[in-house]
């Protein structure tokens, strides 16, 4: 069995980051358009990377099998190249214009409202996913353990019921706040702020 190596994320692996995130967060529930799905997944990956101060990957045989991004106030943020910055800006404005139902605004407002109740916001796990085809190898646990050493203090995660939030609960995170939202097809979505002192 191959050994898991934890190291700084290699930027060329952002396509894999987007792919794992799309699968793990169920982005395909929102569109059947493959190009839109790919662009949105890339946008989310870049947006989260831009606000992070830590970006590490788990590698097996030099192949990315998982990643975690985190933010610690006072540390230097990961730098995006000019093309990626432009893509994020372009997609920010496009998503805002295409948000006919106001769902994105509602989702963001719910999260901001929950975060406003949180007394300590200097440490955050911003983005985290593992290759869904590999299970039982402890990849997620290894990544979380590495992030814990970096963050070392009260930490929060913004997540929702379309993601595998139960993983965090098994790792000792507690639900600090939750709020429900209806998606365009009337299916429910629960937004969470999870917290833990690492």
Automatic annotation (TrEMBL):
Record Gene3D superfamilies: 3.40.630.30
PROSITE patterns recorded: GNAT
Q: Where is the N-acetyltransferase domain?
A: 4-198
Keywords tagged on the record: Transferase
InterPro entries in UniProt: Acyl_CoA_acyltransferase (IPR016181), GNAT_dom (IPR000182)
Q: Where does the record place a coiled coil?
A: none
- GO molecular-function annotation terms? acyltransferase activity, transferring groups other than amino-acyl groups
Which CDD domains does this entry report, sorted A to Z? NAT_SF
Under the heading Pfam families, the entry gives: Acetyltransf_1 (PF00583)
- Membrane-spanning intervals of the chain: none
Q: What is this protein called?
A: GNAT family N-acetyltransferase
